């Protein structure tokens, strides 16, 4: 599970930095909803074309919609999360500035911990193995659990923080936040990005966000619920809401790739 989560974080981090074509962005008044798109088939479209629904051959549902932001895209997306998973205890989306401050604080703490760990003595014996590594602000602490105990890992790098204990893990990689507990996991990413046609602009006027919640007891019997969003911060955002009946199933990567393409096609990011 933790390996999959780390790979997901890296994929999101790389995807957020990808280049975009040189096309001038236009605020969407209606969606471009192709009849078929990479394994998805359109089953309905609103008369005003502000929403349309797709299904995959596995029964996954994708609802593409325009979401007004009222000038606050983060708040608009938090409201959407509350609608998708009402019973969840969702942490607020961190702003890019907060992510940068967290990375700086993690680096500072790592330096302090690494210094303390370097000075600590390692007791020899038959107990669980414990390893401390600290070099230039990079801190790694791995402890192998004794019989019946859970393994622990705490990794702090500039911009990267991983804390794991048994099946529980909290991961922050380049602003991608992942919280996992066994088969239940939540992935969040929120970034300010440049819009299409503004690759050389100093101002990032666009927003890209991802939210994925997997596990049991989700609304409607789904195993995965989430969204991919993108568009101008002033709105409207193009949002693809995903409801998948299965969790880690074959073809899941294809589903999310198709969804991301639809959002980029309409959102202009």
From TrEMBL:
Keywords: Signal. Residues 116-125 have a biased composition (Low complexity). Residues 89-128 are annotated as: Disordered. It comes from the Bacteria. PROSITE patterns: PROKAR_LIPOPROTEIN. Residues 1-18 form the signal peptide. This is Methyltransferase type 11.
